[in-house]
Amino acid sequence: MSEESVLPANDKNAMTGRQPSAVIWTAVMLISLGGLLILRDFTMVGFRNWWALFILLGTLGCYWSAYAAYRAAGRVNWGVITLIYSGIFPLAVAVIFLFEMSWSIWWPLFVLLPGLGLLAFGLAAKPRSGKPSLALRSLKTWLGWMGLSAALLGLTFLAKNAGVFDPAAVHPNWWALFILIPAVGGLIMILRTLLSPDRTAALLVANLIAMISVGATGIVALLGIDWNLLKPIMLIGLGLALLVGFMGKRN
Predict the structure, then answer these.
(1) N or C: which end of the chain has fewer CB within 10 A?
(2) Chain Cα centroid distance, residue 250
(3) pTM for this structure?
(4) DSSP per position, 42-107
(5) pLDDT tens digit string along 85-141?
(6) DSSP letter assigned to residue 123
(7) What is the chain's Cα-based Rg?
(8) What's the rounded Cα separation, in Å, for the pair 110 and 121?
């Protein structure tokens, strides 16, 4: 019996599919590079930082892998999202260099993009089988709201750098508003935890401590309060979290 005959069908498809995929990927790279060189040499489109083309073409491999992972899973799961985001940062770098965009304006992209990645993780589809644990849902909620905060912060900085909007006109410590956004998500998660039949005192206390820590920091920064007050506020919050957790365990 040959080795090939005992392989599962999926393994056979994987073996036979590697070579065509590699050929197609190489062809796409060569065609893209040739087309861009034609644009550079025979049109008014110039690329002074032409070497960034190799960064740009290298990112295509990430998206090819993401497409293959999507075809294999039949849905957009966290593996697909990870592959997409593994290529999005070098893609942004390549575009900025190719089109000679100002880093002083476009640097907020590198705050915006990680925020979108965290938000995507927080909104990722539920597993096909079983229900995610309350602890996992809590983590996803926190990361999702943190991602939303970072994405909005990056977008605001981008608008500010481009001269579209001056957030300082709204509030001098405007950036503190984005610290409060995850605290809102934490409060929502605390309410969900209290209403959940599988809640635990440890998870409730952890969410309370995180929410109080983030919320207190945001309020102190937003109102311009003396930072020395943050320590006693945190201690009071820790005590309240322990009391609520203890009462929740008894109930």
Answers:
(1) N
(2) 37
(3) 0.74
(4) HSS---TTTTHHHHHHHHHHHHHHHHHHHHHHSS--HHHHHHHHHHHHHHHHHHHHHTT--HHHHT
(5) 888 888 899 889 888 889 999 999 999 998 988 888 787 655 555 567 778 888 888
(6) T
(7) 25
(8) 17
